Amino acid sequence: MVSAFGAGLEGGTTGMTLFIVNTSNAGSGALSVSIDGPSKVKLDCCECPEGYLVTYTPMAPGNYLISIKYGGPQHIVGSPFKAKVTGVRLSGGHSLHETSSVHVETVTKMGSAYSTLSKFSSDASKVVCRGAGLSKAFVGQKNTFTVDCSRAGTNMLMVGVHGPKAPCEEVYVRHMGNKLYNVTYTVREKGDYILIVKWGDENVQESPFQVTVP
């Protein structure tokens, strides 16, 4: 049976949040996630030991409806989930209804039914970010900064960059060893950007960052 868990199913603040869809022992099938709410969200889905880690970036506060389907048109247990997002509006946006969705053809997984995230012990306040790319970026160039998580325990690093109109097309996160990460991103238009860095489900110090592209 497929299930889902994580703070992102209940809500959070504007910026990146996450949840896990547990497909352990469920066999292969098509996973479909759609989110309705007051803003478009950037949806990402990647494999994890239990199944799939889904991250989404709500750009405006309000109520979001998260629908999760697996192997057909039927919702999984608990779906649709209602998430209440608070915080400041991160983009122009509007009050109209927006829908974002992602579809993944999954593979058979055998694994633990326990949350990997719940085993992590971390402290996002001890993450240190450095580099020019945290405050200023240039069109068509590789803008970089480093994230030092060596004293912050164990978790997953999440980085998102959102421009005046849409999310940044390319964000590369490279682990250099000893929980030191190098982040590179490219912007295609001038304006004010929001850069979010999270260690697990928590913003690191000073995140979200305000980035100016002259």
TrEMBL record:
Read off the SUPFAM superfamilies from this record: E set domains
Q: Which GO terms describe its molecular function?
A: actin filament binding
- Which regions does the record annotate with the repeat Filamin? 1-85, 119-213
UniProt keyword terms in alphabetical order: Repeat
Q: Name one GO biological process term.
A: actin cytoskeleton organization
User: What protein family does this chain belong to?
Assistant: Belongs to the filamin family.
State what protein this is by name. Filamin C, gamma b (actin binding protein 280)
